[in-house]
């Protein structure tokens, strides 16, 4: 992810973030489903998608957001009061809130799963901009 942040052009950033997403997904899949790091790695992979200059379709992001939702209850059974719980819960809440806003926007006919969508609070964080990106 750091290589994407430090990239000198949008193409290099896109490549670096794409690789980061791939590696974080692999990391998440290598842990047991109830391991705290599993949902954290899925969330960081979602962030990689959000940072990509070209973005990615909401359909792909939903796959990861669904994994977070699927494993969250199992993680909380064991890790609810871990040392990382405050930061983890804040990050996961952000991702799940984004998923909820997207579902509401889909139901309202404002977006589709084929749109490139980012959270509105991320607009100032994405230095490469991106054409056709919808912020919800």
Key traits:
mainly alpha; 2 strands
Poorly predicted runs are none
The general outline is globular
Radius of gyration from the alpha-carbon trace, in angstroms: 15 Å
Number of discrete domains: 1
Order of helices and strands: HHHHHEE
Helix percent band: 55-70%
Question: Overall mean pLDDT score?
Answer: 91
Main beta-sheet strand count, sense and barrel state: 2 strands, parallel
Helix/sheet category: mainly alpha
Counted by DSSP, the helix tally is 5
Describe the strand arrangement of the main beta sheet, using strand numbers. Answer: 1-2
Give a structural overview:
- The chain is mainly alpha-helical.
- The chain has one domain.
- The chain contains five helices and two strands, in the order αααααββ.
- It has a two-stranded parallel sheet with strand order 1-2.
Topology:
Layout: H1 2-6, H2 10-30, H3 36-51, H4 58-79, H5 85-107, E1 116-118, E2 133-135
Parallel strand pairs: 1-2
Helix pairs in contact: 2-3, 3-4, 3-5, 4-5
Write a compact overview of the structure shown:
The chain is mostly helical and 136 residues long. Helices cover 64% and strands 4% of the residues. It has helices spanning 2-6, 10-30, 36-51, 58-79, 85-107; strands spanning 116-118, 133-135.
């Amino acid at each position: 992810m750091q290589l994407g942040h430090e990239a000198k052009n949008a193409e290099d950033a896109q490549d670096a973030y794409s690789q980061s997403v791939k590696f974080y997904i692999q990391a998440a899949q290598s842990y047991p489903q109830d391991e705290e790091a599993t949902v954290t790695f899925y969330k960081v992979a979602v962030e990689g998608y959000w940072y990509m200059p070209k973005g990615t379709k909401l359909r792909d992001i939903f796959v990861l957001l669904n994994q977070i939702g699927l494993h969250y209850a199992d993680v909380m059974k064991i890790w609810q009061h871990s040392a990382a719980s405050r930061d983890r819960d804040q990050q996961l809440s952000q991702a799940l809130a984004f998923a909820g806003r997207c579902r509401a926007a889909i139901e309202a006919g404002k977006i589709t799963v084929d749109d490139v969508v980012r959270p509105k609070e991320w607009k100032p964080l994405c230095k490469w901009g991106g054409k056709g990106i919808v912020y919800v």
